Amino acid sequence: MIIAVIGVAGSGKTTVGKLLASAMHCPFLEGDSLHSNENVDKMSHGIPLTDADRAPWIASIHARILDCFERGQDLVVACSALKKQYRTVLAEGVQITWVYLKGSIDLI
Predict the structure, then answer these.
(1) Any idea what the Cα angle at residue 92 is, between residues 42 and 68, rounded to 5°?
(2) What is the pTM of this model?
(3) Which of 6, 26, 86, 92 holds its CA 20 to 30 A away from the CA of 58?
């Protein structure tokens, strides 16, 4: 089973994802760990990432998801994936269960 925990920054993706992976006794992948140094630098300076910036990042996450799926290994991955086009790439050739964490600005 591949589970993707998605949501905006600060919604609890990492916390929920780690707890879920622990309960499932499977690996947890923090999608942000696969960002390029250039993307990290942009984000640290408050510069929003473009779709072009995100494309290699999404492809890297998909490669890890696909590897686990093809080996029959469960995986929980956390990443924003807020745009449908990102979710489409992540799910290419893979059955993914999506967990969308959503809350008010005050709650998050």
Answers:
(1) 85
(2) 0.91
(3) 26
